[in-house]
Design goal:
306 residues, globular, 7-stranded mixed beta sheet, 3-stranded antiparallel beta sheet, Fructose-1,6-Bisphosphatase, Chain A, domain 1, 14 strands, D-Maltodextrin-Binding Protein, domain 2, alpha+beta, 2 domains
């Protein structure tokens, strides 16, 4: 795929990736300092205050806001002439969740701290999500997992890899498991729902492992530790910033991330919700996973909008 299909015409891909590396590792320094009770670099406050948001919001910490500032200020300073919007979880409400307020075809979708509850609970399973979307579809995805010293990259049509702070790169390594009965599911620690449990019983996976952050879940698939992740929205739905970066990486690696009916995930729509049943996998059994899921909904929850 040519470079002009994954970045705007006036942006050099190599320069962009190098800047994203710098911003990501700066974010890692801040997050790990907060996680250890140390004074963070770059002049940010030492105190990690936790604020509970509204009915549909999780906790917000000083760490979220610090990383948000690093990413936004870095992108705007380095690429001031680029015609793209920036949608971040921490600043989305400034535009009142209206997709019509985002005018450009190109848009950054950022989650400065995915897995905030895990971060607060001192788990290593938190991440930073950075995605570049073009006309509702992801083109570049980056997931930083600070505690594992991993920076994951995915460029649609080009490939995916991860590297450490020294720049040592490793390629993706999906498992060889294929039959649904052999697959390992990666599931949430902090979010469980009765309908999801019913669906998982239908699937009859060989094993279930539980970790936080969608980025960390998808990374476990990319390492070959697990094979499939399923999101089932209930009272609330995940948002674009939860899914866009992991989606780009797993698709760039040759895996698949779709709705249960096989339709694509699209971004920057309505209130940025990713509702329904979403399935990410290494791709080798994806059609079977979707078929089993649709059979479950048809029989058990025919009114559910997948």
């Amino acid at each position: 795929m040519s470079i002009d299909l994954v970045v705007p015409e006036n942006v050099d891909l190599t320069t962009l990736l190098e800047e994203l590396r710098k911003l990501s590792w700066a974010a890692a320094d801040v997050l790990m300092a907060y996680a250890r009770g140390q004074t963070p670099p770059y002049g940010f406050s030492k105190y990690l205050m936790v604020e509970e948001g509204g009915e549909n919001d999780g906790p917000v910490t000083a760490a979220d806001m610090a990383v948000n500032e690093i990413l936004l200020s870095g992108l705007k300073a380095k690429f001031s002439l680029a015609e793209w919007d920036i949608l971040s979880e921490e600043t989305s409400k400034e535009k009142t969740f209206r997709g019509s307020n985002y005018k450009n075809d190109w848009c950054w979708i950022l989650d400065p701290l995915d897995g905030t509850k895990d971060f607060i609970q001192k788990s290593e399973n938190y991440a930073v999500h950075i995605a570049l979307v073009y006309k509702n579809k992801p083109k570049i995805g980056i997931v930083l997992i600070p505690e594992r010293n991993e920076l994951w990259f995915g460029i649609i049509g080009t490939g995916a890899w991860y590297e450490n702070r020294n720049g040592d790169k490793k390629l993706i390594s999906f498992s060889e498991r294929k039959d649904v009965s052999e697959l390992v599911l990666v599931s949430s620690k902090n979010h469980q729902e009765a309908r999801l449990q019913g669906l998982l019983e239908k699937m009859q996976f060989a094993k279930v492992i539980k970790i936080g952050s969608v980025g960390c879940k998808v990374a476990s698939i990319l390492r070959g530790e697990s094979d499939v992740y399923i999101s089932l929205s209930g009272r609330t739905s995940p948002k674009d910033w939860d899914m866009a970066a992991p989606h780009a990486i797993i698709e760039a690696a040759g895996g698949t991330f779709t709705h249960a009916d096989g339709s694509d995930l699209l971004y920057k729509n309505s209130n940025f919700s990713q509702s329904g049943c979403l399935i990410a996998s290494h791709g080798k059994s994806h059609k079977d996973l979707c078929r089993k899921a649709m059979e479950f909904f048809s029989r058990e929850i025919p009114e559910y909008n997948v």
